[in-house]
Amino acid sequence: MRSSSNFASALASSPAETSAAAAPAVDSAPTALRSEAVVGTTEVEDSASHATAVLQQLCSVCDEYELAQLGERLQGLAVLVGRDLVAVSQALTGPLGCHGPVQASAEHLVGLGGKRLRPLCLALAARVGQPSDGHVRDLGVAVELIHSATLLHDDVVDLGETRRGAPSARLIYGNAASIFAGDLLLIDAIRKVVNTGLPKLLPSMLDAIDEMIAAESLQLTCRDLLVVDIETYQGVVVGKTGALFGWALRAGGRAGGCSDQVCDALESFGRELGHTFQLVDDLLDLCGEPEQTGKNLFADLREGKATYPLILAMSRDESLRPRLEALLAAESGPVVDVDAQMRGIVDAIGLTGAIQDTRAVAAERSKAAIGALEGVPEGPARSGLAGLCELLLSRIR
User: Span 95-394: which CATH code?
Assistant: First the structure.
């Protein structure tokens, strides 16, 4: 069997199928990445590149952390959902329903790519059953558009200047254009869900968006206060991150024709996966490698966002809050060595045991996610979903 690094190279050089015809059955999936249409245009090549980037990243992480067994398990994802991800990426390159700065703002963000983890999870959930390609594509696009809409809005609220390593849309096209662009993406997502004709999906999608807005409102009330408790943090995470991951998994199950019970199990998995994802992201803000994570160190800390390890540490060391408040105030005053002081605060957080305990909580949430998969039929899709949990945890070992 090929090593995961060799697999990543092979995947990068494999031509992607561009047809939107019905997906092959799982047992014929090895042909899924063969080219059966005219390819070679820049747009198709870029779409395929975006689509396979996530799978290549999964394999490279396995190599980095010497997770050979997990890498071997994840190799099958290209066969199972590679075609789905290509179709989603190609659909995301299409024109939107308006012109001018609003369209440009939306296309700027969507064109930057991103991890596309939600469409990946949705596609895996769909492959638990027997979906049509069109449904997987449209729902994968819908969940990515919802996520992108929240990023456009977040950058306006947070006055964000960069996103995915590039200038944010609001910095280029202005706050108003970014707000309307987010609204445009939400409408497009709703339209795609409606057009699938699948039962019960639109109400559950609206419920998820409602949860996300409620969580954003809760976070807004606590903004810059640094007095958030664990219970409030959980409420924000469940709504902001867990709700959309949960809906993505439920939507995938619906696309695959799964039973209500299986869809419920998939949604539970998604919510726990989202919780795990956020805890891992919180830790990477403090001790990640920017060149690997694509995120600057202390980004959340600089904004005064109350992450799980920070909340835990401040509950154990009363000196941390005033130190951080003074540092945040100093950033807008005379020049200070902010990075050095940030590292000092991170060291103090570590001394409280909060980083180690956050790792333990992330492991618990990951275990709960994998436990939820007991209600999902065994097979390569379920194995792939469990592998994503293990891979998330590997980033904070």
Answer: 1.10.600.10
